[in-house]
Amino acid sequence: MPTTKYTKWIPSPLDGLSLEELLDELSEFFLQSGFQYGFRDVSNPHDLDALRQAIIEKLVEMGRIQESLLEQWMADRSEGEAKELDDLIEQLVRRLIQEGWIQARENEPPPSSLDQSGEGAEDLPAGSARFELTDKSIDFLGFRLLRHLLGSLGRSSFGRHETVHFATGVEAYQATKEYEFGDTLNLDISSTLLHAVGREGLVGPLNLEYEDLMVRQAEYESSCSTVLLLDTSHSMILYGEDRFTPAKRVALALSHLIRTQYPGDSLRLVLFHDSAEEIPLKQLARVVVGPYHTNTCEGLRLARRLLMAEKKDMRQIVMITDGKPSAITLPNGRIYKNAFGLDPMILEETFKEVAICRKSGILINTFMLASDHYLVDFVKKVTEICRGKAYFTTTLNLGQYILMDYLKKKVETIH
User: What pTM does this model have?
Assistant: First the structure.
């Protein structure tokens, strides 16, 4: 006959902790930009052993384990409670891999022995593999970051509505108007019949005249193509403040917003430093800043080329930077750099590219993370040329400004 065996319940630091909650807590670790590591060993944050340590540190911060146990684990994880904790964290990492939140990859061996897929086995020893975020985890982080940003704006939920706010509810039409030649024949039957009855009375048959026709006014949502232009020069982490990680968080949130609420829109990501290149959004979490100058002109040029290939009603560049332009790409392909002051030649070429963007119908919105007077003057000049907008903001409210500005562009009343 079937029997039931009871054993003593042993509490675990992971009791009641879901993988989703853990990923949310580790978002800062996944999106770090090299601020903690400077310009050395930039691959270290994506090492599986670094992930194990980050999980334990987060468990300490959440009050699930004692800090002394972390110190034991750091000193020797081969015996006692430290070994039990290490086994527990190893099981957690395996779950993250098995459920598709992260993907483990072996350290790159010599080319002759490199596997085509590059995927590592799940039982790799500590420190022998690196990991990458999967599309599933990036999408989840984008959703959580968007929710946090909208929460800071005073909105608790969101849906696809024709207003500048997010809220649940039903679709509502605007007031009707008399039909005019050229209007879309979105006929309001009730108002049309009332006009005819008011003119002729309740007699039959009812004759409809041209002036009886009433149409509904609807909200028109324009399609928009956006290039997010991120500055990855060394100044983004140079002055004792990590300015790049908040920018990455905003990019993920904006990507999730566009994909779920505005499927007709597109978002592309361009990094600019000594030069400029486009990267897929799924690689954003791995991007770190480097010892680079700021080639704003090349970033704008690449963004313009990408936008001109898009067939959208609106085209815009959202540029996030904290420094002056200090480099340009010469016609022969060489890069001219000058980090001292505002170089007249660099400024001239940058302003030329801004003017070309304006002639191409591309709007440039600049979010400046610094407040030096010469940088303010530079951004004002860019705004004057392209007739865009400039925001002098901080890392604390950067996401709020960008999301509010993006949403305000979505609605226009047409007849």
Answer: 0.62
